[in-house]
């Protein structure tokens, strides 16, 4: 017999905890697959992983960081402490079921709502008073599952972590022929300090990737006293990652062949900038981090090989090739809804970054990126809580679809990397629209002077009394 409750939240990272706080009065059940809060900050971080957003921007609106004016970027452990402390302060831990992985979701609502082709009219009741979804939960990896039923689901399973993106290789040129060790950064994150050092020490290491996890790993590798080759996969993107540090620290991009050949704004608009770790260029200057650009590569027995048939010897190849967050979603969201998760463009059609107009009684938090994903998630959860409280109504399905299509077109015009669905350039406009829809003031500073001269941050979006 299924256990019944109004709300379930799936995932207890930053997004899931933000949702739990805003929906706390409904006593939602929060299912978390692992034994910890924090998601990526627990499971995709290494010793050197730090936040790239200033702490005063990555902050819940009603819970300041202990040293919010400290200009250093917090480590992943500090972020976890902050999140646990927030969850404890607002008594949210009692809502979380740890080691509880959602393995299947079934639709048990009105069968007419599964007829999604050409759907128009009202979105439908958010809390209809009867179950719309059934959820199978596997606890502690046991063989059996417990079924639950809910009126509304909030999906917060994260864009990163859990499912690694592994490159596809030509026949007989994949990791199976390599005599060394191949691992993804997700596996590297699981190693303790000693095991990580042992893996890298005295080895020829190649890190494949150009994003934050690749850059951090290259430095860890250099610090383990190794020469590490950082191999960027796509020329145009590879170099762009470094532009922020160039601006901040005027570093030698040209010297290392890292100068971007597309506008910096495109990276900002697609949330693709990375703050470089402190010793990145000093390790490069010592010759401990080498760079290579390559569009195609594969394995040979002793290492990796490039298009021009040149070969590189390696003992360890680390794939910093990212994650497949949509695969995670598609694994649990049933048809016909699973196919609606993304537009053919690859972006998720989410009204206010939260509701897919064609998927009933389900919200998504954490799939729209910005400069501060915590702020983006929290504001959308506040919007959601007021929506379910009937403080405002959703527009018609057609209007919501028009809006999501318009946003997609704007993203496409702004950056060629639009698939990441990042709103960094429009964050403030989105926040204004959300505030107006909730009936809040969108000009949120206490004075015109502050409005003109002080930047917006999470605290400006504190509850309106
Ligand atoms: C290396 C790295 C650096 C980053 N740096 C920044 C930064 O500086 N600034 C910034 O704003 N953002 C940054 N991000 C983005 C980061 O992902 C977000 O800030 C935020 O932490 C995401 O939280 P989330 O809750 O949406 O997802 P996650 O942290 O991924 O949490 C999802 C949770 O869902 C659980 N889960 C998944 N599937 C299931 C299931 N089927 N059943 C039950 N539970 C499930 C997972 O175990 C996990 O705990 C970074 C990400 C990475 C990987």
Give the proportion of residues in helices: 25-40%
CATH H level, superfamily name of the largest domain: FAD/NAD(P)-binding domain
Say how many strands there are: 15
Q: Strand pairing plus helix content: what structural class?
A: alpha/beta
Which topology of the largest domain does CATH recognise? FAD/NAD(P)-binding domain
CATH architecture classification name of the largest domain: 3-Layer(bba) Sandwich
Low-confidence stretches: 235-240
Shape: globular
Task: Tell me what portion of residues adopts beta-strand conformation.
Answer: 15-25%
User: How many helices does DSSP assign?
Assistant: 15
Helices and strands, in order, run as EHEHHEEEEEHHEHEHHHHEEEEEHEHHHH
Tally of separate domains: 2
Mean pLDDT over the residues: 85
* Alpha-carbon Rg, integer: 23 Å
* Amino-to-carboxy terminus distance: 42 Å
Task: Explain how this protein is built.
The model is unreliable at 235-240 (pLDDT under 50). Helices cover 29% and strands 16% of the residues. The chain folds into two domains: 3-161 and 325-461, 3-Layer(bba) Sandwich (FAD/NAD(P)-binding domain), CATH 3.50.50.60; 175-319, FAD/NAD(P)-binding domain. It contains 15 helices and 15 strands. The strands form three sheets. Strands 1, 2, 3, 4, 5, 6 and 15 form a seven-stranded mixed β-sheet that branches. Strands 7-14-8-9-10 form a five-stranded parallel β-sheet. It is globular. By secondary structure, it is α/β, with parallel strands linked by helices. Flavin-adenine dinucleotide (FAD) binds next to α1, α2, β4, α6 and α11. Flavin-adenine dinucleotide is lined by residues 10-16, 31-34, 39-41, 44, 49, 51-53, 58, 101-102, 156-158, 160-162, 212-213, 328, 332, 366, 372-373.
